[in-house]
Amino acid sequence: MSTLTVPSPQPSPREDAQNLHRAFKGLGCDTGAVVNILAHRDASHRDHILQEYETLFSHDLRKVLADELHGNLKKAVLLWMENPAERDAIALRQAIKSVPLFDARGVTELICTRTCAQIRQIKQVYSSKWSSLEDDIKSHASGDHKRLLLAYINTTRYEGPEIDALLVESDANFIRKVKAGSSSDEAVLIELFTERSRAHLVALRSAYFTMYQKDLRMAIKDVTSGSFKNGLSAILQCAENPAKYYAKVMRKAMRGLGTHDTAVIRVVVTRAEIDMEEIKVEYKKRFKKPLVDVIHSETSGHYRSFLLALIAG
């Protein structure tokens, strides 16, 4: 469920474009006004604002925002102004080209949590802007993690609710026999996790526990490691409960010294209009603190105001 709140009735896109233009004029940007407008408009309305701004002032609003805003607020607002496929492609590019190191967790999150249709759109946008997504993954990822990512973006999965009980049982039996470090076993694990439907993986986790009294995620962790383990775990968690997965991502991003703002921005901006309400519930249930309070304590200024406007609900 979305946490985005919009005024009723919404101002016209033309009125919003004019008010944004006024916020940019004069000495300094009225950042509060920009946040108050853009953080409370849905995707369709934001798209119409972009069109109206171009028509009225002959400028790309995104370029104006890039000039007028700064820091993490700028990153968050610019990502917010893109459509979902553009947004994912941009975030993927940033994670792949992350300095000094390839952001394996970010790339895993953006690929292994998306549907086949979403991945096709992301690949089209990515190749139109930069290069082949497949080529960039080949150049920057490594080992079994690379093979998992490449298989995931190139496989068409069934996404309906029906499952094959015999195949579920067969997969559970195979996983029980997997040996750590076996390249042939790891190849079959990649095939299994990239070709099976989400419904199948949910049934597989249940069947594995029934058959062997052990959680499937723990079994996978016993025989895999590093980014490969994280990728398999992300696929399995998102098959069953995406909100719980994203709650954990947010926890990791804001735990300990410093905040991983790139991850916070990515989750808040990409999930605010989808399932942020469920993510908030899972976060409170698991970590005993409201997500709104944690973001408030870990961020500041207009950046904080923008994030809280998106998730407050």
Automatic annotation (TrEMBL):
List UniProt keywords, sorted A-Z.
Answer: Annexin, Calcium, Calcium/phospholipid-binding, Repeat
Q: Which GO terms describe its molecular function?
A: calcium ion binding; calcium-dependent phospholipid binding; phosphatidylserine binding
**Annotated GO biological process:** response to cold; response to heat; response to salt stress; response to water deprivation
Q: Which organism is it from?
A: Linum tenue
What is one term from the GO cellular component aspect held by the record?
plasma membrane
Entry protein name: Annexin
Q: Does the keyword Repressor apply?
A: no
Q: State the source organism's domain of life.
A: Eukaryota
- Record's family? Belongs to the annexin family.
What is any Pfam family matched here? Annexin
